[in-house]
C-alpha cells in the first residue's frame, strides 16, 4: 500500500483534499485510519520541528511538495505532477488553513477602530508561494466549503469574508472533527454573512432602538444615578430577542440568564418585560418594601413568560450581587435542577445563558471552575451560551496588557474547546447571526459556546464616572461615534427596507410609552401557568421549631438496612467496605450502637424511598473524606467505572427518588455556588455540599456571604442547602481544625440560617430528615466532628432512631440530684466528651453538670432556659470550647447566655487563649492546651 502511494505521487497530490481529510482524522484519533497511512503520518509527525508548527496540517501539506519534488526511479516524467503547480496547490491549502486558525486577528471587530491591526504574514498569499499572477488560476479548495475548484482570488475573497469580516471565528483548537467540521460548514457555507428579510431587519432595529432610547431616557430623567448603561452594546438586546424567539424552535422552554450589572436594567425592561413604571419607582425610592433588606435595582432578578412562534418561553434573570461572575455556577445549578424536574436528560428544554464583562470573564477564577464543571457528570447542563459584552475597557484599565495575559478576553474558554465567535457590535445583524450559530451548536453538541460581542462603553463605569480621566483618547473616539442604532437605521434606509421617518417614529413611540410607564407593546404573557413551576407557599412563614416526626419504625429500619447493605453476588467489595456493611447489619439488629456513617446512610435511605431525592457533592463524597460513608462501592476485580461501581442507595426500590453522590472537582467556590443554585430550584430535595475539611469553605466565601447567608433578606430567595463542614481540634494543625464557626455565626440574623454542632450519631439522622420533612427551607450548616465518626461514646442505640427526634439542647441525664451541682458547663460539639472524661477522672460526677447546645442558631433560648431552671442555685456557669477565645461560638452567643442568667449567677469562659491562627501546629502544645482548659473548667471557686 505504501509503495502504491509513492508510485502514484501525482494522484497523491491531486487528491490532496482527500489526504488532508484523512490526516485530520488521524490527528483526532490515529486508530481510525488504515495502518499504512497511520505509519506514514506517524513519520511526518516525528519530523524535526513538526511539534512546533502553528498549523496542524503543515506536515502533510509539506509532504505533498516533497513527494512531487523527486520522482521515484522508473517513473515517467509525464506521470509526475508539475512540481511548481503542486507547490502552488499546497500553498493554497496552507493559506486556507492559516485563515481558519488566524483569520479572527484580521477581522473587522472593533467599532472604534482604535488599534492598528498586526499584519499576519501567515495570511499573506505570498507567504505560501502565491503571487498576483496566480489570482486567476483555478485551484482545488480542499475542505473549504465552496465549489471544488475556484480561482485563487475567489478563494481569498471567501476566506476574508468568512473569517475577516465583521465576524471572527476561533474553532481550530477543537480536537473533535465533527464539531470542527460543523463550524466550518456553518460559517464557510454562508460566508459568515446573515441574510435576513425586511421583517427581521425591522425587528432588529426596533430592539436596538428600545435599548438606546431607554438608556438615554434614564440618563436625562435620573441624572447621576447609577444604572450601568448598556450604551455602546445595544446589539446585545437584539441578540437576546433572537435567542428567545428562535430557541423555542429547538425545544427550549426555559432560558435562565445570569449577568452582572452592566446592561441589566435594559435586559429587565426590554427583554423580560418589566414595566418601566416599576423601574422608575425603584429609581425614585417609591418601590414597595417587601423584603427585609432588599437590594439595589441593578442586582434584582425577574422572570416572565414570553410569547414566541413556537409557544411560550419562560425567561428568568437570576439575582446577582456585585461580585460579577459568581452568579454563573448558581445559574448552572438552577438549570440542572430544572432539567431534572422535567426529566430532561439531554438538557434540551432548559438552557443557561451567561452574560459577562470582558475583564471579569478573563479575570475571575470562578469562570475557570464553572467551565471545569461543564462536562462533568454531576454538573453538566447540556452546554451554556456565553455572551461577553466586550467594551474593551473593563473597569478602568483600557490597556489590555494590564487586563489579562491572553490575546482575547475569551481565551479561558479554550480550556474546554468551546468555539468562540467574535463579532462587531456595530453590526446587529451579525450579532444575531452568531447568536443563531451559538444556539444551533449548543443544541447539537451539548457543549458551551462563546460569543465575544466587541463594542464599547459610552459612559463611565457608572454614571458618576468621568472616563476621560483614564481613557481620554478612547473617549474622544466614542464621543464622535454615531451609535449602533443610527448607523443601522441609515443602513436600512439605504437598503430600502424603511424610510428615514419610520426610524424616528420608533424612537418617539418608545419615549411616549416610557412617559406613561408602559411598554410599546405587550411583550409578556399574563396569568400563564407553567407546568413545571414551583410552589413555594408551603415553605413561607414557617418556624424552625415546626413539629416534625423524624423517627422510623423498627420494621422500616430493618427493611432499609437490608436493602442498602445488599451487594450483588458477582461484586467483590474491598475487605474494609465488607466489614462496614457487616457492622451496619449488626447495628440494625441492635447488637451494637449506630455510628455516624450508619445514621447518615439510614437517613438518606428513608428519604429516597419516600420520594425525596438526595444529592451530595464534595471532593470525596462517595467514600467520604474520612472513609466513613462508602455510598459508592468499587468492585475490586473490575476497572471500568460504569461496571465496577455499585451505589446501594440508588438501588433501594423500583420507584424510589434519585440518589446522587458526586465526587466534585477540586474547587469550592464554583461547586458551592452551583449547589446553592440547585437547592434554590429543588426545595423538595435534600441537597448537600460537603467540604473536605471545614476551612476549605474559605475558598467559597463569596458564595456564603452573597447568597447563602443573605439571599433571602435581599431577594426573598428561600434555599434549603445543607453544608457539612468537618470541624474539631485533634492536633492536626491550623488548616484542618476549624471550619471558622465564628464567621458563620457572625452572618446569622433574622433566622437566615441554621448552625448545628452535633455530638451524637442520632442527631445526624434526625437533622438530615428534619431538613426535608419540615416545611422550612433555610440553609443548614453542620459542623461535623471528624473524631466522633468512630468514637464509641458518640454512637447511638437503635432506640434513638425509632423513638427520638433532633434535640437542639441536650441536658445532662447523668445528674441524679440537681441540687448537688456546683457548676454548670455549657458546650457544643466534640469537646463534650473531653469534659465528660475530665469530670470522671476528677470524681466530680455530682458536682458538675454538662449541657450541650447542639443548635447554635437559631438559638434555642426556651429549651436552654428550661434545662437551666433546675440549676438556678448554681452560681458558676462556664462556656467551654476547644477553639481559641477570639474564635468559635463564645463572642457570638455570649449575650444570649447572659440573658438567661439568674440573679447572682456569673458566666465565665474556658478554652484556648486568643490566637491569630485557628490552631497550633505542634501536637504537644495542642495536648497541653486541652489539658489546661479542661482543668480550668473543673476548678471550682477559682
UniProtKB/TrEMBL annotation:
The EC number(s) given in the record are 1.2.4.2
Where does this protein come from, organism-wise? Answer: Vogesella aquatica
Q: Which family does it belong to?
A: Belongs to the alpha-ketoglutarate dehydrogenase family.
Q: Which Pfam families match?
A: 2-oxogl_dehyd_N, E1_dh, OxoGdeHyase_C, Transket_pyr
Q: Which residues form the signal peptide?
A: none
Q: Which domain of life is it from?
A: Bacteria
Q: Which GO terms describe its molecular function?
A: oxoglutarate dehydrogenase (succinyl-transferring) activity
Keywords noted in UniProt: Oxidoreductase, Thiamine pyrophosphate
Gene3D superfamilies documented for this protein: 3.40.50.12470, 3.40.50.970, Multifunctional 2-oxoglutarate metabolism enzyme, C-terminal domain, TPP helical domain
- CDD domains, sorted: TPP_E1_OGDC_like
Q: What is this protein called?
A: oxoglutarate dehydrogenase (succinyl-transferring)
Specify the Transketolase-like pyrimidine-binding domain's residue ranges.
Answer: 594-791
The record's listing under SUPFAM superfamilies reads: Thiamin diphosphate-binding fold (THDP-binding)
Amino acid at each position: 500500500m505504501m509503495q502504491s502511494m509513492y508510485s502514484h505521487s501525482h494522484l497523491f497530490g491531486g487528491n490532496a483534499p482527500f489526504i488532508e481529510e484523512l490526516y485530520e482524522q488521524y490527528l483526532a484519533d490515529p486508530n481510525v485510519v488504515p495502518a499504512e497511512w497511520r505509519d506514514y503520518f506517524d513519520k511526518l509527525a516525528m519530523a524535526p520541528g513538526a511539534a512546533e508548527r502553528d498549523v496542524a496540517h503543515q506536515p502533510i501539506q509539506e509532504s505533498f511538495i516533497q513527494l512531487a519534488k523527486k520522482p521515484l526511479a522508473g517513473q515517467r516524467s509525464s506521470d509526475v505532477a508539475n512540481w511548481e503547480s503542486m507547490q502552488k496547490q499546497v500553498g493554497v491549502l496552507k493559506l486556507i488553513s492559516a485563515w481558519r486558525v488566524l483569520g479572527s486577528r484580521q477581522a473587522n471587530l472593533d467599532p472604534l477602530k482604535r488599534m492598528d491591526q498586526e499584519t499576519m504574514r501567515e495570511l499573506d498569499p505570498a507567504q505560501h508561494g502565491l503571487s498576483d499572477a496566480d489570482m486567476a488560476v483555478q485551484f482545488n479548495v480542499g475542505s473549504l466549503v465552496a465549489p471544488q475548484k475556484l480561482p485563487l482570488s475567489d478563494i481569498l475573497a471567501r476566506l476574508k469574508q468568512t473569517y475577516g469580516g465583521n465576524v471572527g471565528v476561533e474553532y481550530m483548537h477543537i480536537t473533535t472533527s465533527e464539531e470542527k467540521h460543523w463550524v466550518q460548514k456553518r460559517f464557510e457555507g454562508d460566508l459568515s454573512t446573515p441574510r435576513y428579510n425586511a421583517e427581521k431587519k425591522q425587528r432588529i432595529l426596533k430592539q436596538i432602538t428600545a435599548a438606546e432610547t431607554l438608556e438615554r431616557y434614564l440618563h436625562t430623567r435620573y441624572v447621576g444615578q447609577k444604572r450601568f448603561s448598556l450604551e455602546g452594546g445595544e446589539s446585545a438586546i437584539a441578540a437576546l430577542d433572537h435567542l428567545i424567539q428562535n430557541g423555542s424552535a429547538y425545544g427550549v422552554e426555559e432560558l435562565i440568564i445570569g449577568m452582572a450589572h452592566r446592561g441589566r436594567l435594559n435586559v429587565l425592561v426590554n427583554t423580560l418585560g418589566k414595566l418601566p413604571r416599576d423601574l422608575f419607582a425603584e429609581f425614585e425610592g417609591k418601590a414597595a418594601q417587601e423584603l427585609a433588606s432588599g437590594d439595589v435595582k441593578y442586582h434584582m432578578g425577574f422572570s416572565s413568560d414570553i410569547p414566541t412562534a413556537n409557544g411560550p418561553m419562560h425567561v428568568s434573570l437570576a439575582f446577582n450581587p456585585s461580585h460579577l461572575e459568581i452568579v454563573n455556577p448558581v445559574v448552572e445549578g438552577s438549570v440542572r435542577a430544572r432539567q431534572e424536574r422535567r426529566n430532561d436528560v439531554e438538557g434540551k428544554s432548559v438552557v443557561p445563558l451567561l452574560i459577562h464583562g470582558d475583564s471579569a470573564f478573563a479575570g475571575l477564577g470562578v469562570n475557570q471552575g464553572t467551565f471545569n464543571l461543564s462536562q462533568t457528570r454531576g454538573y453538566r447542563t447540556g452546554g451554556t451560551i456565553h455572551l461577553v459584552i466586550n467594551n474593551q475597557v473593563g473597569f478602568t484599565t483600557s490597556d489590555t496588557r494590564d487586563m489579562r495575559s491572553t490575546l482575547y478576553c475569551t481565551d479561558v474558554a479554550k480550556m474546554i474547546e468551546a468555539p468562540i465567535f467574535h463579532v462587531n457590535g456595530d453590526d446587529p445583524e451579525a450579532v444575531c447571526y452568531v447568536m443563531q450559530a451559538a444556539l444551533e451548536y449548543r443544541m447539537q453538541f451539548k457543549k458551551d459556546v462563546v460569543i465575544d460581542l466587541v463594542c464599547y462603553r459610552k459612559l463611565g463605569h457608572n454614571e458618576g464616572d468621568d472616563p476621560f480621566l483614564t481613557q481620554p483618547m478612547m473617549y474622544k473616539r466614542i464621543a464622535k461615534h454615531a451609535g449602533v442604532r443610527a448607523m443601522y437605521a441609515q443602513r436600512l434606509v439605504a437598503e430600502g427596507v424603511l424610510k428615514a421617518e419610520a426610524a424616528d417614529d420608533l424612537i418617539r413611540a418608545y419615549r411616549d410609552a416610557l412617559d406613561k410607564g408602559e411598554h410599546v407593546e405587550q411583550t409578556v404573557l399574563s396569568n400563564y401557568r407553567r407546568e413545571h413551576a414551583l410552589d413555594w407557599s408551603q415553605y413561607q412563614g414557617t418556624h424552625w421549631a415546626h413539629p416534625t416526626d423524624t423517627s422510623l419504625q423498627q420494621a422500616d429500619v430493618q427493611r432499609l438496612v437490608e436493602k442498602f447493605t445488599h451487594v450483588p453476588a458477582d461484586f467483590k467489595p474491598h475487605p474494609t467496605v465488607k466489614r462496614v456493611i457487616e457492622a451496619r447489619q449488626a447495628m440494625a439488629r441492635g447488637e451494637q450502637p449506630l455510628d455516624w456513617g450508619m445514621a447518615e446512610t439510614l437517613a438518606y435511605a428513608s428519604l429516597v424511598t419516600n420520594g425525596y431525592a438526595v444529592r451530595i457533592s464534595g471532593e470525596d463524597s462517595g467514600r467520604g473524606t474520612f472513609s466513613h460513608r462508602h455510598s459508592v462501592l468499587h468492585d475490586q476485580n473490575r476497572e471500568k467505572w460504569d461496571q465496577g461501581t455499585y451505589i446501594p442507595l440508588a438501588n433501594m426500590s423500583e420507584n424510589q427518588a434519585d440518589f446522587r453522590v458526586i465526587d466534585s472537582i477540586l474547587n469550592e467556590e464554583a461547586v458551592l455556588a452551583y449547589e446553592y443554585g440547585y437547592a434554590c430550584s429543588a426545595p423538595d430535595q435534600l441537597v448537600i455540599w460537603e467540604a473536605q475539611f471545614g476551612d476549605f469553605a474559605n475558598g467559597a466565601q463569596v458564595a456564603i456571604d452573597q447568597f447563602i447567608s443573605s439571599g433571602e433578606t435581599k431577594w426573598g430567595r428561600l434555599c434549603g442547602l445543607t453544608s457539612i463542614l468537618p470541624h474539631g481540634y485533634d492536633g492536626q494543625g491550623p488548616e484542618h481544625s476549624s471550619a471558622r464557626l465564628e464567621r458563620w455565626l457572625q452572618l446569622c440574623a433574622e433566622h437566615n440560617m441554621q448552625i448545628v454542632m452535633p455530638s451524637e450519631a442520632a442527631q445526624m439522622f434526625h437533622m438530615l430528615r428534619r431538613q426535608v420533612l419540615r416545611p422550612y427551607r433555610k440553609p443548614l450548616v453542620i459542623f461535623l466532628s471528624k473524631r466522633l465518626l468512630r468514637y464509641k461514646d458518640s454512637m447511638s442505640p437503635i432506640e434513638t432512631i425509632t423513638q427520638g427526634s433532633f434535640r437542639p439542647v441536650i441536658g445532662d441525664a447523668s445528674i441524679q440530684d440537681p441540687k448537688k451541682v456546683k457548676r454548670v458547663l455549657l458546650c457544643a460539639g466534640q469537646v463534650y466528651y473531653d469534659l465528660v472524661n475530665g469530670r470522671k477522672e476528677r470524681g466530680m460526677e455530682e458536682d458538675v453538670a454538662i449541657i450541650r447546645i447542639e443548635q447554635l442558631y437559631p438559638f434555642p433560648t426556651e429549651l436552654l432556659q428550661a434545662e437551666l431552671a433546675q440549676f438556678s442555685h448554681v452560681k458558676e456557669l462556664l462556656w467551654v470550647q476547644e477553639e481559641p477565645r477570639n474564635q468559635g461560638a463564645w463572642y457570638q452567643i455570649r449575650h444570649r447566655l447572659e440573658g438567661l442568667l439568674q440573679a447572682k449567677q456569673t458566666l465565665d469562659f474556658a478554652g484556648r487563649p486568643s490566637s491569630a491562627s485557628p490552631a497550633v501546629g505542634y501536637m504537644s502544645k495542642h495536648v497541653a492546651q486541652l489539658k489546661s482548659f479542661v482543668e480550668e473548667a473543673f476548678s471550682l471557686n477559682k
